[in-house]
Amino acid sequence: MNTGLESVTYQTVERIQGPLLFLNNIKRVLFEEMINIEMSNGEIRQGQVLQADPNLTIIQVFEGTELIEKDSVKVTFSQDVFKLGVAEAMLGRTMNGRGLPIDGQGEILPEAFHEVTGNPINPAERIKPGDFIETGISSIDMLNSLVLGQKLPIFSGAGLPTKEVAAQIATQARIKNQEADFAVIFGAMGITERDGRFFQRSFENAKISNLIFFSNYASDSIIERLLIPRIAMTIAEYLAFEKGYHSLVILTDILNYAEALREVSAAREEFPGRLGYPGYLYTDLATIYERVGRIISKKGSVTLFPVLTMPNDDITHPVPDLTGYITEGQIFLDRNLFNMGYYPPINPLPSLSRLMNAGIGKGKTRADHREIADQLYAFYAKGVQLRQLVAIAGVDSLSDKDRRFLKFTDEFEQRFIHQGQVRRTIENSLDLSWELLRMIPKDELTRIKKSVVDHYY
User: Fold this and answer.
1) How many Å apart are CA 203 and CA 195, to the nearest integer?
2) Which terminal residue of the chain, N or C, has fewer Cβ atoms less than 10 Å from its own Cβ?
3) Is residue 303 classed as helix, strand or coil in its secondary structure?
């Protein structure tokens, strides 16, 4: 958005607090307007208007406010908002938290400039999410399937292999029965240098050319941490709705994003909500999540995997709690499965994909997919209950039939859930499911049609 107004410079910084500059008596200021900040030593930093009010204008500084002296700094208002230069050439590249290449492979010539704030998709123009995305992980593909245009979060805990699962999905995901190109946009916020090197190695070893990696390290600006989800969604929308790609966005870790939002809110001296997070946390997360979907007359789609850590494994914490309200299910990483050495430690019982039925079945995966998923879930749930009984009364209290279910549960975890870094197609997962179901007498398979049981059993 170009206003046609000339840039204006001020030297009226009232105070500096955290990553923010506070100014008074600023005229014609725009919300989210881009700012140049010239320090006394000649260094130029960039910022963005966070609050546009003539009585009090607040600027968030991308590079941080260290060494800025309020009496000598010059603040220039550009009269334009932050825009990302987007291009197909970004595929295969590594970028920083402002969308600039940092991989030493040269500059990228933008094809267009898009505002990163974006807008939610108009409900009247939405198409219901559908068509299967194969992640290569059986616990997701078989039991909690991801579909094009869905937002499906991964709920994890401290110490669990969150980054490994996120990288595995990024490098293994494929689309089925779709002619459009596929792109993966990976946004990492507040990560350590070690995690950054892990992601880089994972992507390089996979030798995939359709992935864009945006990175923000814990030592980088928290303002860039707030930008990455919007930058990632902006390039995903461009590729999807202007270039016809199916874009899969993976954002990790949403908790780090929320912590940055809380820090900025505290610097603004806003009244805190639950656990100190700003009261608008729900709205802020929705401005990211609701940009996901499919649009009438557009070939492409945007699908989202937000990854977040639950502090103390607490699902009622504000970040997972609000994320669960906005999104369409959840994938749970389980600490008990992890402690038993299973990877990926995805627990199917609390996991859920509310749009699964739209992406599976005949012509999409296989006609027996839904029934097998229901039967696996029922048998595994029964086996977990029997384990609790065994812990109290001992294995001798079980009937022969119950012991079969207990054996099935062990095999299910060891062979189905625990697959390591190996990529399984949906056909592999379906065939393995039938191998496990054959451990139970045929007449117990009550969730599957008799004709299907007779064909596969």
Assistant:
1) 12
2) N
3) strand
